[in-house]
Amino acid sequence: MLHIKPIISSLLHSKSGPFLLFLQMMLSVAIIANASSIINQRLELMDRESGVDETKVLTFRVSSFSENTDHEAQNKRDQQMLRDLPNVINVSSTNMFPLSGGGWSTGLLDKPDPNAEGVKRTPQAAQYMGNEHFLDTLGLTLVEGRNFYPEEILHEHGYANQKVIVSKPLADEYWGEESPIGKILYHGTEYPIEVIGVVDKLQGAWVDSDFLDNSFIFNIDFGSQSAGGMYFVRANEEHIPELKQQIETAFLAEDPDRVVIEFLTVRESRDISYQNDALMVYILSIVIVLLLLVSSLGLAGMVMFNVQRRTKQIGTRRALGARKRDIINQFLVENYVICLAAGVCGGLLAVQLGKQLMQHYSLPALDLTYPLVTIAGLFIVTSIAVFLPARKAATISPAIATRSV
Amino acid sequence: MFLHYLDLAWRSIKKTPILSLLMVLAISVGIGITITTLNVYKMMAFNPAGEKSDQLLRVQLWSQGPDSWDNFPQLLTYQDVQNLRNIEPLVRQTAMHRTGGVIQTDDPSFAASMQSVRSVDRDFFKMFDVSFLHGSPWAADADVNAAYHAVISSSLNEKLFGSGNNVGKTFYFDKRPYQVVGITEDWNPQPKYYDPSNGAFNDAEQIFIPFSLLPIEKQATWGNTSGWRYEKTNNFQDRLNSERVWTMFWAEFENAEQIEDYKRQLAAYVEQQKAIGRFTDNRSPEDSVQLVNVEQWLENENVVDEDNKILVGLGFLFLSVCLVNILGLLLTKFLKRAPEVGVRRAIGASRRQIFSQYMVEVGVIGLIGGAIGLALAWGALAVLGDKFGTDAALTQLDNSMWFLTPTIAIGTALLAGLYPAWIVCRTKPSVYLKSQ
């Protein structure tokens, strides 16, 4: 069935057309393989879980401009007021929002004196401050130890009686197999900070950082400290749009000298934080689709014209007893020969391009699966692009051959 | 003759509509992708400082202790900025800090709003070429003896007071009355080169107030604060005295000598600080100072993000695939028309004429493809702006594209046409005359 030899010699006879097809496919393989590798890498990044019930947690800030307010008392009143709103499930103050792109981070030490011999620093981690409602409001899962007791909540940062809950990735990285519960850490002062719990997952604010999964939660009601407050409100998704209005109204009714801003669910923050990655995925997907479209339409166009040019040859072959299938096969095999050559060279080019990208930009190495899958895909797409005009060629009647064109 | 070729080209295009359509499609898609990525790149890579780029330098100091940070911090401690302000300026200089708060007016119906506010020294306006519609920057004295003065933008003026010259009127920022001393023309450099780290493409502040108010008003910072060691801060004064970095400093110079001279002054300053126990790292005073011009600063801040560079590269690779594609199609088409060329050659057309005619035809295809490509790019940018909330500044079609697009489109098409046109004009008349 496969008469490859005459096909190759006929390809070599008219070099430029097949060579251009080869070149086009080779470049396509290199581009598509690298583009899909980048797409996949971005999708993996975007898929990482924050540990938070993202769509159910609403975040916002309050800024007060009245003078002589007792911030601690005001913060307590505000949280109670939020809890009393219809459909609010739970509320916590905080100093930063997950996946928001801005916040606090720190590393703690295992000795009070930072210059002590053999002092060991924890990995860098997000530094959350919240009260006993923090875990429940965000929907975090405690996997070890316990939550803060209400009487443990502090209103200042940096003093005695600090407790901390850590995220599991941080615990695993720093303590390994050992349980972190009961361990003591320091923040460069004599005050010990006791680890009392581990949550399964809680990401920090910066999706591009290499410590995204590391978090500390301190037992501090942060809104007590200044004129600005930040809050998490947990509610069912359907209630969140109306809550925004209700919250703003309630705050201004309590004290009109303030502004409530930046209502965002954690989900919305996530979308904003991953916007560039989403954009990259979107553009690269379009590039791949268009590349395949342009390539296959171009290929189909060329085959179509080849068919016209070779009408006489095809007619002759048909007259000599070639079946329709043989004619279609001829075009397909021609295509496969070019595809194979282009696939091998394109695969090598893809790897080279991948190396360049890795060297100059922060991209991981190109996995060999991508060029292989791309080549396989190219075989399928070009088969379709060749098959349709070739089928038309096969209908050429043998009688044509006897006519002069 | 050109018009005649145009006419021939148009007829030829009409004769093979599918093939021509495929070529136009390939070019327009290639151009669409390339121009879209190139446009975003150009917008990001723009340096608004222009000629002044080498004269405006941002000051960086290695203020951290040993074994802490590996690079110069982007920001400075408040105490360093205060001390730098006291070094006699060579040309101009400004301390800087981003804050914000609630803005109100005497009009009770005006809804209080949160605004980002920039605190600067009066030289800022000259250094960064902000032009005034009414009034002027505050007096030099206000840089030393804090005054509640403000410079606002024309559109904020409109919002607060209605149009016109409202210099002398008062508004409230966090309940403090500020007197408007100057109203600037709307000014929004993109990227925001005076402070790209707080969002290089968000809008410039519309309120500027004297930096000297910072310690009095205990302004919050609307930007980063970093510390290399733990410092307890019980009050605002502790923050001002701390080794945390959160403020910025820019200086302007006229020539390289001034810069060298200033560097010496900075090194002397570091030396003096070392003597009182600051700048404890093992660096020499000369190596503890760094002056970075606007262009370098934009680069250090990665204002053009990596993704975009990759996309521009892939865009051009895509275009090259389109080029090869068109080349193949043209070759097919021209070879098919070889008999016609044979006849024309036989009746006296020169090779040059045949070649020119085909190049004109290819150029027309390139032009049409380019026009469609530009429309595609325009649409793509609109979609990106819409779907991804990409900053408006990046999704406007840059003026240069009106020139670049047809150049790239026609250039690509002509490049693709060269070989096929050369093949076809080499056609020997005799071959085809015989078979006819």
**Helix proportion of chain B:** 40-55%
Which quaternary structure do these chains form? heterodimer
What's the number of extended β-strand segments of chain B?
A: 11
The structure class of chain A reads alpha+beta
What series of H and E elements makes up the topology of chain A? HHEHEEEHEEHEEEEHEHHHHHH
Determine the N-to-C terminus distance of chain A: 29 Å
Poorly predicted sequence stretches spanning 5 or more consecutive residues of chain A: none
GO molecular function (chain B): transmembrane transporter activity
Main location (chain B): membrane
Organism (chain B): Parashewanella spongiae
Membrane topology (chain B): Multi-pass membrane protein
General description of the model:
- The complex is a heterodimer of chains A (405) and B (436).
- By secondary structure, chain A is an alpha+beta fold.
- Chain A has 2 domains: 4-47 and 274-401, no CATH class; 66-256, no CATH class.
- Chain A contains 12 helices and 11 strands.
- In chain A, strands 3, 4, 5, 6, 7, 8 and 9 form a 7-stranded mixed β-sheet that branches.
- Chain A starts with a helix and ends with a helix.
- By secondary structure, chain B is an alpha+beta fold.
- Chain B folds into 2 domains: 1-47 and 305-431, no CATH class; 55-292, no CATH class.
- Chain B has 15 helices and 11 strands.
- Chain B has helices spanning 2-15, 17-45, 78-86, 124-127, 141-144, 154-161, 214-217, 236-241, 256-275, 294-300, 306-336, 338-346, 351-388, 401-425, 429-435, and strands spanning 56-61, 76-77, 92-104, 113-120, 132-135, 149-153, 170-173, 176-184, 207-210, 245-252, 289-293.
- In chain B, helix 2 (17-45) runs antiparallel to helix 11, helix 11 (306-336) packs parallel to helix 14 (401-425) and helix 12 (338-346) crosses helix 15 (429-435).
- The two termini of chain B are 29 Å apart.
- At the A-B interface, helix 2, strand 11 and helix 8 of A face helix 2, helix 11 and helix 13 of B.
